[in-house]
Amino acid sequence: MNFQDFFNPKRVIDLSFFNFDNAITACYFSDINLRVKKVNKNFKKFFPVLGNVKDAYFPDILKQLGVSEEQIELFEAEIDRKGSVLIPKVKIVIDNQERLFSLLSTKTQNNDFEYLNGIQGQFVDRTNEHKLTMERDQLIENQLKDKKVIEEKSKKLESLATRLAKYLSPQIYKSIFEEEKEQSVSHSRKNLTVFFSDIVSFTDLTDKMEPEKLAAIINSYLSEMSTIAIKFGGTIDKFIGDALMVFFGDPETHGETNDALKCIEMAIAMKERVAELQNHWKNLGAANGISVRMGISNGFCTVGNFGSDLRLDYTILGSPVNLSARLQSMAEYDQILVDENTKNLIEQDVKTTFIENYTPKGFVRPIGVFRIDGFKSKNYMKDHIRLSHKGKRIEINVIDSSDIRAAIEELKSIQEGFEKELREKEK
């Protein structure tokens, strides 16, 4: 007599199935031939459409639940070949709602009770888990899409900003894109040094040259002149055909004298660069090369945004603008003319020659006109770095920085003198 004969088979199966009976999954136990012998309460609860499944062939149950033929064949093959099977996603429609389960099954083996040899398994409801996973995946996908959109928008904005930078002077571009808040005052009155230049006989050049060659020459010329203007801190106001307008003193200023000197340095550098590029422009088609006239004036201008609701220009208005244009038109080939105000600011460092007293149209009194002949010192750029400080209560201009330490000692002596006077007044 076998050991198992002393026990009731049904009771043994019930006891071995105890944990599955209390599981939250839908559990089943079948014999080795896949005939279902026992299911737990959740199996009936999960699949009420099945009714009584005792002794039913398990693959038929799967078919009745709507499991695909491919997955049923997979189940049978894996159980037979490996003795276990895991199907992670089994879609079953219950009460017209699609739910997602995973099916885990394995062969059981017991040497003492042969009627426990069979197949046990369980359906795990992963519908909510799947929904959460889908929501997470959707969220990640949306985030990736949003990130991609943001990156594309950023690239477009960056490209737009790069293109826009070509239409604005660097100082104006910086004030628009880097200011934390909009300036409360959009217009102001400032002392500026204004520069105007154009190409001599430009109209004749346009009439004789092909458009492509003309564009190459003008773009080359304006690019070179703009580079020099930016190098010396000038604000490029506009191009008017071949004409170039630049001003110094806004939005940044180093004091009216330093601003005027920077403008003179720029004009001389432009004149020298024009001379250097003559062969290049002749090769492009300008047979006689290019000659430039320049005019510079100094005075108070109104600076700010001017225009309409549809289009604004950051520019300057005032008589110095008109005067610099008049001086430019008076200048001879490759000549730089300045007005008396500018001459008075720069005369310590720059050689000038009086030309005439001239009353421009729209002016009520004659204007002294002077020609720029260069800096008095050949090493001006090296030996005369002009330093300045403009605070709330004082303004300091170091007019000779060839010996900067001597200048500092002079400032210290001024400080000591002021402190001595204060001590005497306090006694």
So, CATH architecture of the largest domain? 2-Layer Sandwich
Low-confidence stretches: none
Rg value: 46 Å
Q: From N to C, what is the helix and strand string?
A: HHEEHHHEEEHHEHHEEHHEEHEHEEHEEH
Count of folded domains: 2
* CATH class type of the largest domain: Alpha Beta
Q: What is the tally of helical segments?
A: 15
Main beta sheet: 8 strands, mixed
The total strand number stands at: 15
Which fold does the CATH topology of the largest domain refer to? Alpha-Beta Plaits
Distance between the termini: 129 Å
Could you say which structural class the secondary elements and strand pairing correspond to?
Answer: alpha+beta
Mean pLDDT figure: 82
By CATH, the superfamily of the largest domain comes out as: Nucleotide cyclase, GGDEF domain
The helical percent reads: 40-55%
What share of the residues does DSSP label as strand, in percent?
A: 25-35%
**Shape, principal axes of CA atoms:** elongated
What do these coordinates show?
The protein is α+β, with helices and mostly antiparallel strands. It has two domains: 3-125, Beta-Lactamase; 188-384, Nucleotide cyclase, GGDEF domain (Alpha-Beta Plaits, 2-Layer Sandwich), CATH 3.30.70.1230. It has 15 helices and 15 strands. Strands 6, 7, 8, 9, 10, 11, 12 and 13 form an eight-stranded mixed beta sheet that branches. A five-stranded antiparallel beta sheet has the order 2-1-5-4-3, sandwiched between helices. Strands 14-15 form a two-stranded antiparallel ribbon. A hairpin with a 4-residue loop joins strand 1 and strand 2. It is elongated. The mean pLDDT is 82.
